[in-house]
Specification:
Elements (H helix, E strand, L loop, with lengths): L25 H22 L3 H26 L6 H34 L22 H24 L3 H28 L7 H33 L9 H27 L7 H8 L5
Subcellular location: Membrane
GO biological process, one term: mitochondrial electron transport, cytochrome c to oxygen
GO molecular function: cytochrome-c oxidase activity
Length: about 290
Protein backbone atom coordinates (compact mmCIF):
# COMPACT_ATOMS: atom_id res chain seq x y z
CA UNK A 1 0.00 0.00 0.00
CA UNK A 2 1.35 3.41 -0.95
CA UNK A 3 2.76 5.42 1.92
CA UNK A 4 2.79 2.49 4.33
CA UNK A 5 5.96 2.24 6.41
CA UNK A 6 8.08 -0.89 5.95
CA UNK A 7 8.25 -2.62 9.35
CA UNK A 8 10.05 -5.78 8.15
CA UNK A 9 12.75 -6.90 10.59
CA UNK A 10 15.99 -7.61 8.69
CA UNK A 11 18.40 -9.81 10.57
CA UNK A 12 22.13 -8.99 10.23
CA UNK A 13 23.06 -12.66 10.01
CA UNK A 14 21.97 -15.62 7.93
CA UNK A 15 19.41 -17.45 10.09
CA UNK A 16 19.06 -20.51 7.84
CA UNK A 17 21.02 -23.74 7.89
CA UNK A 18 22.73 -22.81 4.64
CA UNK A 19 25.46 -20.29 3.93
CA UNK A 20 24.43 -17.65 1.40
CA UNK A 21 27.80 -16.80 -0.07
CA UNK A 22 28.36 -13.11 -0.85
CA UNK A 23 29.99 -11.98 -4.10
CA UNK A 24 33.76 -12.12 -3.82
CA UNK A 25 36.56 -11.05 -6.20
CA UNK A 26 39.06 -13.56 -4.85
CA UNK A 27 38.09 -16.75 -6.79
CA UNK A 28 38.47 -14.89 -10.09
CA UNK A 29 41.66 -13.19 -8.86
CA UNK A 30 43.23 -16.49 -7.81
CA UNK A 31 42.28 -18.04 -11.17
CA UNK A 32 44.07 -15.26 -13.07
CA UNK A 33 47.07 -15.54 -10.73
CA UNK A 34 47.39 -19.30 -11.28
CA UNK A 35 47.20 -18.74 -15.04
CA UNK A 36 49.94 -16.12 -14.70
CA UNK A 37 52.02 -18.58 -12.70
CA UNK A 38 51.61 -21.29 -15.37
CA UNK A 39 52.67 -18.82 -18.07
CA UNK A 40 55.61 -17.79 -15.90
CA UNK A 41 56.75 -21.39 -15.57
CA UNK A 42 56.69 -21.78 -19.35
CA UNK A 43 58.67 -18.54 -19.69
CA UNK A 44 61.20 -19.89 -17.20
CA UNK A 45 61.61 -23.10 -19.22
CA UNK A 46 62.25 -21.18 -22.44
CA UNK A 47 64.10 -18.02 -21.37
CA UNK A 48 65.34 -18.88 -17.83
CA UNK A 49 63.60 -15.73 -16.56
CA UNK A 50 61.91 -16.06 -13.16
CA UNK A 51 60.02 -12.76 -13.36
CA UNK A 52 56.72 -14.38 -14.38
CA UNK A 53 57.08 -17.10 -11.74
CA UNK A 54 57.70 -14.52 -8.99
CA UNK A 55 54.72 -12.41 -10.06
CA UNK A 56 52.51 -15.50 -10.32
CA UNK A 57 53.47 -16.84 -6.89
CA UNK A 58 53.10 -13.41 -5.25
CA UNK A 59 49.66 -12.70 -6.73
CA UNK A 60 48.45 -16.24 -5.99
CA UNK A 61 49.53 -16.06 -2.35
CA UNK A 62 47.92 -12.63 -1.97
CA UNK A 63 44.61 -13.75 -3.49
CA UNK A 64 44.55 -16.97 -1.45
CA UNK A 65 45.32 -15.09 1.78
CA UNK A 66 42.45 -12.62 1.18
CA UNK A 67 40.08 -15.44 0.29
CA UNK A 68 41.14 -17.40 3.36
CA UNK A 69 40.69 -14.29 5.53
CA UNK A 70 37.07 -13.96 4.40
CA UNK A 71 36.33 -17.64 5.03
CA UNK A 72 37.79 -17.40 8.56
CA UNK A 73 35.68 -14.32 9.28
CA UNK A 74 32.53 -16.06 8.09
CA UNK A 75 33.25 -19.16 10.16
CA UNK A 76 34.59 -17.63 13.37
CA UNK A 77 32.98 -14.22 13.76
CA UNK A 78 29.81 -14.29 11.66
CA UNK A 79 28.57 -17.77 12.57
CA UNK A 80 27.76 -18.75 9.00
CA UNK A 81 29.28 -22.23 9.20
CA UNK A 82 26.41 -24.17 10.70
CA UNK A 83 26.59 -27.90 11.33
CA UNK A 84 25.11 -28.55 7.91
CA UNK A 85 27.62 -26.22 6.24
CA UNK A 86 30.47 -27.90 8.12
CA UNK A 87 29.27 -31.26 6.81
CA UNK A 88 29.40 -29.92 3.27
CA UNK A 89 32.89 -28.49 3.87
CA UNK A 90 34.12 -31.87 5.10
CA UNK A 91 32.64 -33.57 2.03
CA UNK A 92 34.25 -31.00 -0.24
CA UNK A 93 37.63 -31.43 1.43
CA UNK A 94 37.46 -35.21 1.06
CA UNK A 95 36.51 -34.88 -2.61
CA UNK A 96 39.40 -32.45 -3.13
CA UNK A 97 41.83 -34.92 -1.55
CA UNK A 98 40.40 -37.70 -3.73
CA UNK A 99 40.92 -35.58 -6.86
CA UNK A 100 44.51 -34.89 -5.79
CA UNK A 101 44.98 -38.63 -5.32
CA UNK A 102 43.84 -39.24 -8.92
CA UNK A 103 46.25 -36.52 -10.04
CA UNK A 104 49.20 -38.33 -8.46
CA UNK A 105 47.87 -41.68 -9.65
CA UNK A 106 48.26 -40.56 -13.28
CA UNK A 107 51.98 -39.94 -12.81
CA UNK A 108 52.46 -43.20 -10.89
CA UNK A 109 50.71 -44.94 -13.77
CA UNK A 110 53.11 -43.36 -16.28
CA UNK A 111 56.16 -44.33 -14.21
CA UNK A 112 55.07 -47.94 -13.77
CA UNK A 113 54.00 -48.26 -17.41
CA UNK A 114 57.47 -47.36 -18.68
CA UNK A 115 59.16 -49.33 -15.90
CA UNK A 116 57.25 -52.54 -16.68
CA UNK A 117 57.65 -52.25 -20.45
CA UNK A 118 60.79 -50.21 -21.24
CA UNK A 119 61.12 -49.30 -24.92
CA UNK A 120 64.13 -49.21 -27.23
CA UNK A 121 64.43 -45.45 -26.67
CA UNK A 122 65.44 -46.07 -23.05
CA UNK A 123 67.67 -49.07 -23.80
CA UNK A 124 65.07 -51.77 -23.01
CA UNK A 125 65.97 -51.44 -19.32
CA UNK A 126 64.75 -49.65 -16.24
CA UNK A 127 66.19 -47.36 -15.01
CA UNK A 128 67.16 -46.32 -18.56
CA UNK A 129 70.74 -46.69 -19.74
CA UNK A 130 72.90 -43.87 -18.42
CA UNK A 131 70.57 -43.10 -15.50
CA UNK A 132 71.85 -43.75 -12.00
CA UNK A 133 68.82 -44.18 -9.77
CA UNK A 134 69.04 -42.41 -6.37
CA UNK A 135 69.78 -44.55 -3.34
CA UNK A 136 66.44 -45.03 -1.55
CA UNK A 137 68.15 -45.74 1.77
CA UNK A 138 69.94 -42.40 2.04
CA UNK A 139 68.20 -39.01 1.97
CA UNK A 140 64.85 -40.43 0.72
CA UNK A 141 64.67 -42.81 3.71
CA UNK A 142 65.48 -39.91 6.05
CA UNK A 143 62.73 -37.85 4.45
CA UNK A 144 60.29 -40.72 4.93
CA UNK A 145 61.14 -40.79 8.62
CA UNK A 146 60.67 -37.02 8.88
CA UNK A 147 57.23 -37.04 7.24
CA UNK A 148 55.99 -39.99 9.31
CA UNK A 149 57.19 -38.17 12.44
CA UNK A 150 55.42 -35.00 11.32
CA UNK A 151 52.19 -36.97 11.02
CA UNK A 152 52.60 -38.12 14.62
CA UNK A 153 53.24 -34.59 15.92
CA UNK A 154 50.20 -33.30 14.04
CA UNK A 155 48.05 -36.04 15.56
CA UNK A 156 49.43 -34.99 18.95
CA UNK A 157 48.34 -31.40 18.24
CA UNK A 158 44.85 -32.59 17.26
CA UNK A 159 44.53 -34.55 20.47
CA UNK A 160 45.71 -31.56 22.49
CA UNK A 161 43.06 -29.30 20.94
CA UNK A 162 40.34 -31.78 21.85
CA UNK A 163 41.66 -31.76 25.43
CA UNK A 164 41.76 -27.93 25.53
CA UNK A 165 45.56 -27.93 25.91
CA UNK A 166 46.41 -24.87 23.85
CA UNK A 167 50.18 -24.74 24.32
CA UNK A 168 50.63 -28.47 23.87
CA UNK A 169 48.76 -28.17 20.56
CA UNK A 170 50.94 -25.19 19.61
CA UNK A 171 54.12 -27.19 20.19
CA UNK A 172 52.69 -30.02 18.11
CA UNK A 173 52.01 -27.66 15.19
CA UNK A 174 55.44 -26.03 15.49
CA UNK A 175 57.10 -29.45 15.51
CA UNK A 176 55.13 -30.46 12.41
CA UNK A 177 56.15 -27.30 10.55
CA UNK A 178 59.78 -27.75 11.57
CA UNK A 179 59.86 -31.33 10.28
CA UNK A 180 58.14 -30.24 7.06
CA UNK A 181 60.69 -27.49 6.42
CA UNK A 182 63.58 -29.90 7.04
CA UNK A 183 61.96 -32.31 4.59
CA UNK A 184 61.86 -29.64 1.88
CA UNK A 185 65.47 -28.62 2.51
CA UNK A 186 66.64 -32.23 2.17
CA UNK A 187 64.52 -32.69 -0.95
CA UNK A 188 66.08 -29.59 -2.51
CA UNK A 189 69.54 -30.93 -1.64
CA UNK A 190 68.72 -34.21 -3.37
CA UNK A 191 67.52 -32.40 -6.51
CA UNK A 192 70.66 -30.28 -6.55
CA UNK A 193 72.99 -33.28 -6.26
CA UNK A 194 71.06 -35.65 -8.56
CA UNK A 195 73.12 -36.92 -11.53
CA UNK A 196 70.16 -36.41 -13.90
CA UNK A 197 67.51 -33.76 -14.51
CA UNK A 198 63.96 -33.53 -15.86
CA UNK A 199 65.22 -33.71 -19.48
CA UNK A 200 66.94 -37.10 -19.04
CA UNK A 201 64.46 -39.54 -20.59
CA UNK A 202 61.04 -40.44 -19.25
CA UNK A 203 62.61 -41.51 -15.94
CA UNK A 204 63.83 -37.99 -15.21
CA UNK A 205 60.50 -36.50 -16.30
CA UNK A 206 58.41 -38.78 -14.07
CA UNK A 207 60.85 -38.50 -11.15
CA UNK A 208 60.91 -34.71 -11.07
CA UNK A 209 57.19 -34.35 -11.76
CA UNK A 210 56.29 -36.68 -8.90
CA UNK A 211 58.79 -35.35 -6.35
CA UNK A 212 58.27 -31.74 -7.48
CA UNK A 213 54.48 -31.88 -7.28
CA UNK A 214 54.72 -33.59 -3.91
CA UNK A 215 57.08 -30.88 -2.68
CA UNK A 216 54.58 -28.26 -3.88
CA UNK A 217 51.85 -30.00 -1.88
CA UNK A 218 54.11 -30.09 1.19
CA UNK A 219 54.61 -26.34 0.82
CA UNK A 220 50.85 -25.83 0.60
CA UNK A 221 50.34 -28.04 3.64
CA UNK A 222 52.87 -25.98 5.62
CA UNK A 223 50.94 -22.79 4.81
CA UNK A 224 47.72 -24.53 5.87
CA UNK A 225 49.23 -25.60 9.19
CA UNK A 226 50.78 -22.16 9.79
CA UNK A 227 47.35 -20.53 9.37
CA UNK A 228 45.93 -23.02 11.87
CA UNK A 229 48.79 -22.20 14.25
CA UNK A 230 47.98 -18.48 14.11
CA UNK A 231 44.28 -19.19 14.60
CA UNK A 232 45.12 -21.40 17.59
CA UNK A 233 47.07 -18.57 19.23
CA UNK A 234 44.08 -16.24 18.63
CA UNK A 235 41.69 -18.73 20.29
CA UNK A 236 39.72 -19.50 17.13
CA UNK A 237 39.50 -23.21 18.02
CA UNK A 238 37.58 -24.97 20.76
CA UNK A 239 37.27 -28.59 21.79
CA UNK A 240 34.09 -28.89 19.70
CA UNK A 241 34.80 -26.53 16.76
CA UNK A 242 38.14 -26.84 14.97
CA UNK A 243 37.13 -27.76 11.43
CA UNK A 244 39.99 -25.82 9.82
CA UNK A 245 42.55 -27.77 11.82
CA UNK A 246 40.79 -31.03 11.02
CA UNK A 247 40.97 -30.31 7.27
CA UNK A 248 44.66 -29.41 7.60
CA UNK A 249 45.31 -32.72 9.36
CA UNK A 250 43.52 -34.68 6.64
CA UNK A 251 45.52 -32.89 3.95
CA UNK A 252 48.84 -33.45 5.72
CA UNK A 253 48.17 -37.14 6.24
CA UNK A 254 47.35 -37.37 2.52
CA UNK A 255 50.72 -35.78 1.73
CA UNK A 256 52.38 -38.32 4.05
CA UNK A 257 50.62 -41.23 2.36
CA UNK A 258 51.60 -40.02 -1.13
CA UNK A 259 55.24 -39.78 -0.09
CA UNK A 260 55.26 -43.32 1.33
CA UNK A 261 53.87 -44.64 -1.98
CA UNK A 262 56.30 -42.45 -3.92
CA UNK A 263 59.29 -43.68 -1.92
CA UNK A 264 58.23 -47.32 -2.24
CA UNK A 265 57.44 -47.16 -5.98
CA UNK A 266 59.91 -44.63 -7.41
CA UNK A 267 62.89 -44.98 -5.10
CA UNK A 268 62.80 -48.57 -3.85
CA UNK A 269 61.04 -50.54 -6.59
CA UNK A 270 62.09 -48.16 -9.39
CA UNK A 271 65.77 -48.50 -8.48
CA UNK A 272 65.76 -52.29 -8.40
CA UNK A 273 67.86 -53.43 -11.36
CA UNK A 274 68.97 -57.02 -10.78
CA UNK A 275 68.86 -59.95 -8.39
CA UNK A 276 66.22 -60.77 -5.83
CA UNK A 277 64.16 -57.85 -4.58
CA UNK A 278 64.64 -59.00 -0.99
CA UNK A 279 68.41 -59.16 -1.51
CA UNK A 280 68.25 -55.65 -2.99
CA UNK A 281 66.40 -54.33 0.08
CA UNK A 282 68.70 -56.17 2.50
CA UNK A 283 71.78 -54.82 0.75
CA UNK A 284 70.42 -51.29 0.85
CA UNK A 285 69.78 -51.59 4.58
CA UNK A 286 73.30 -52.93 5.14
CA UNK A 287 72.12 -56.37 6.21
CA UNK A 288 74.11 -58.06 3.45
CA UNK A 289 77.61 -57.42 2.16
Amino acid sequence: MAGKKDTTIRMPFNMTKFHRVQPSPWPFSVTLSVAMLAAGVLEWFWTYSLLGVVWGITSTLFGCSMWWRDVIREATFQGKHTKLVQRFIKTGMLLFIASEGMFFFSFFWAFMHFALSPTMEVGLSWPPLGIEAPNPWGLPFLNSTLLISSGLTLTWASRAVKEASKWSAAWGLVSTMFLGVIFMVIQAKEWWEAPFDIRDSVYGSCFYMLTGLHGLHVFGGLIFIFVCFVRLLRNHFSTARHLGLQCAIWYWHFVDAVWIVLWAVVYVWGGWTKGSFFEYVATGLGLMG
